[in-house]
Amino acid sequence: ITNIDMGLVNIGKFDLKIEKTITDISISNNKETKSTHFNESQLAKAEVSAKLVNSSLAVVTYQIKVVNEGEVEGYVNEITDYLPDGMEFKSNLNDSWYESEGVLKSNAFAAQTIKPGNSKTITLVLTKKLSGSNLGLMSNKVELTSVNNKNSIVDDNEKNNSSMSEYLFSSFSFTGISFLCSPTTRTFETG
Question: Which residues contact 125 (CB under 8 A, 6 or more apart)?
Fold first, then answer.
C-alpha cells in the first residue's frame, strides 16, 4: 500500500508580540499646560522649568499593541503593566485597566480573536506629580501574562511577550517646556 493520506496537518506556529510606545505627554502647572504627540516612541523626554517643577503634573499616554506574528489565531487573556514608582493609576482615565496587588491588569482582548498578521491596540494613561527630587529616567514594562489559542500551541517566541518604554523628566533654568522624541530625534520647544 502506498500514498496513504493519514490526515495529518501542520497547524503552524503561535506567536503573539506586544509593543509599548509613548504617544503623548502633557505637563500642566499653575502657569501653563503643554502637550506633545510622539510618533509611537519608546523613548520620550519632557523638560520643565525649574521654577515650575514642584507645581507640575505630567500625564503620559501609552499605546500598547498586540500583534499576531504567528500562523494561528490567538487570544490575549491578560496584559500586565508594572506601574513605575512615582506614577499614579487613575481608573477614570483607564476604563480597560484595573489595579491588582500593585500591578495593572487588562483583559480587554480576552474574548477577541487576533488573526495572523492582525493586531489589537489599547491605551494606558498614567500621571506623575513632578518635584525636584523625582525627575530622571523612568522605565515602564508591560507583558502578555496569559495567552492561548484553540490548538493549545505554546508561544513560539516568548522573548517578544514583553516591551519597555522609557521617559525622562528633567528641569532647566529658563522658562517653558520642551519635548524630545527618539529614535528619530525631534525637539519641540515652547514658551
Answer: 59, 60, 61, 62, 90, 93, 94
